[in-house]
Amino acid sequence: MKQSEPPLVSVIIPVYNSGPFIRHAVESVFNQTYPCERTEVIVVDDGSTDNTFDVLKEYRGKISYVRQENKGIASARNKGIEMAKGEIITFLDADDIWHKERLQKVVEKFREQPQAGMLYHPFDLIDSNGLIICKNFYKAYGYKEGLSDWVAKKIFMGRIFCGGSSFAFRKSVIDKIFPIPEDIRRGVDYYITAIASCCAPAVYIHEILGKYRAHDSNFTMFAGHDDIKKLAIVNKEFAEMRQKVIEKILTTANSHMRAIDLGMLKRRQAKELTFYHFLTGERFKGARLIPALFAGKPSVKESLRGIAVSCMILFMPASLFPKLLKMQQRIRIRLS
Q1: What average pLDDT does range 240-263 have in this prediction?
Q2: pLDDT tens digits for 191-204?
């Protein structure tokens, strides 16, 4: 990008039935300190049936708006990328909010770090009414802060929260990722950031630059904690998404991608499939996957985790699984 002219930034906002929140998201883009004439706002309405269409009417002429039948978040992201013309691409979830200096900080950091292909930063966590639940999502939920450079392994391990609104990408990296598989039902942000982390170094911005809104329909990491059937579906869909990541890495002609050790990702996928069978009452099928938890060269922590999972699958009643998850989350937060 030329130093003499601010780069064009494409902001892609997929939306589905987010009438109560979408105005706050769009306004947070128009309130940026970054030049509005160098900001392209693309809203992809994925077949909303609430008042989203009416809310967005007042922004016609200021945004590029496209409506499609409901196909899911992956399809909406693909449509937005088709339309994007910017040198920098960033996504904003329809229920999240950026601080006014967010885009300016992102552009400045890309200029300071020409090797970076992806940037990300922490968020405040807010409830559906916009009230702050906690400062700094990373610290509050046990994620590691400040992880930069080649971070693929950290993302594979789940050490980096993949909230879509916190990431920004160079177009050259996005071109290597999109279009993404439209049958991904859960973990689209994980898919994008995992592939991006295999293409170029990432840089962490040590400033809270937005607000991540937590509510029942979007808090993936805790989805179905009290419902065994939902927990089973979550594990199955994450396992399917990780398979898509593996396939993308294996079929991409990128020297760094080809050097990525996929063992860790495959072991996490095996754990999710094991839990899926366990939670759906197919304990024997889950037990048959136990050897995959130790395939390749697992670290000591992975091996210990594999032993713990094996004991759970073989001996623990499935009804105790939700309580165990909650206890694990509390321990993780205290240790962070």
Answers
A1: 84
A2: 999 999 999 999 99
Phi, psi dihedral angles at 122 (to 5 degrees) = -80, 165
| Contact residues for 161 (Cβ-Cβ < 8 A; gap 6+) | 137, 138, 141, 143
Distance between CA atoms of residues 336 and 330, nearest Å? 10
Burial class of residue 322, CB neighbours in 10 A (0-12, 13-18, 19+): middle
Instruction: Inform me whether the pLDDT recorded for 331 exceeds 70.
Output: no
User: What are the structure tokens assigned to 102, written together?
Assistant: 């967010």
Residue 124 banded pLDDT, cuts 50, 70, 90:
very high
Report pLDDT digits (tens) over 18-64.
Answer: 999 999 999 999 999 999 999 999 999 999 999 999 999 999 999 99
| DSSP state, residue 59 | G
d(CA 204, CA 240): 28
- CB neighbours of 218 closer than 8 A, spacing ≥ 6? 93, 95
Residue 264's SS3 state is helix
Instruction: Look at residue 115 and tell me whether its pLDDT is greater than 80.
Output: yes
- The C-alpha atoms of residue 85 and residue 310 are separated, in whole angstroms, by 49
**For the chain, domain boundaries:** 9-221, 223-335
CATH, range 9-221: 3.90.550.10
Which residues, in sequence order, are CB contacts of 90 under 8 Å at separation 6+? 9, 10, 11, 12, 103, 106, 167, 168, 169
Alpha-carbon distance 72 to 255, whole Å? Answer: 32
Q: Which helix (H) or strand (E) holds 20?
A: none
Q: How far is CA 132 from CA 4, 32, 141, 158, 295, in A?
A: 39, 21, 14, 24, 43
pTM of the model: 0.92
Do residues 116 and 110 touch, judged by C-beta distance below 8 A? yes
